Amino acid sequence: MQAVPVNLWAILASGVVSMVLGFLWYGPLFGKTWMSLSGINPSKGDDKGMGKRYAISFVGSLVMAYVLLHSLVFASVYTETTGLAAGLMVGLWSWLGFIAPLTLGSVLWEGKSWKLWFLNNAYQLILLLIMGMILATWK
Q1: Count: domains in the chain
Q2: N or C terminus: which one in the chain shows less Cβ crowding within 10 Å?
Q3: Is the residue at 44 inside a domain?
Q4: What is the pLDDT of residue 46?
Q5: pLDDT recorded at residue 45
Q6: Does some domain include residue 3?
Q7: Residue % of the chain over a pLDDT of 70
Q8: d(Cα 55, Cα 39) in Å, to the nearest integer?
Q9: Which letter does DSSP use for residue 2 in this model?
């Protein structure tokens, strides 16, 4: 069995991009909308332990990038597709096959709104597409 080549810099860059995109998405771009839809009250003082939350989130992003890289390698061999097209394909299919169906539970069982689902899933889709492009092109 052959080892999958792992570009640690591309994985690290993907993790950093995740944090930057998340900051922008859930901050200046859609922060107020997200807090309103999520029932988060910023004046309540729920910001304790933010450093730990960001650190765990960053590790999660690194794991996501690592697994996405493996999916990219397998999909590239299977479809004979490389470069940006492969990265976008893997990002899209990963979102459609894993993220979108899994997060439906928040609407179906937890009573969250479809608006919140679309807001969160748009972020996840964009993130996976960007990660896919980084991982596919950074050799």
Answers
A1: 1
A2: N
A3: no
A4: 64
A5: 65
A6: no
A7: 96
A8: 23
A9: P
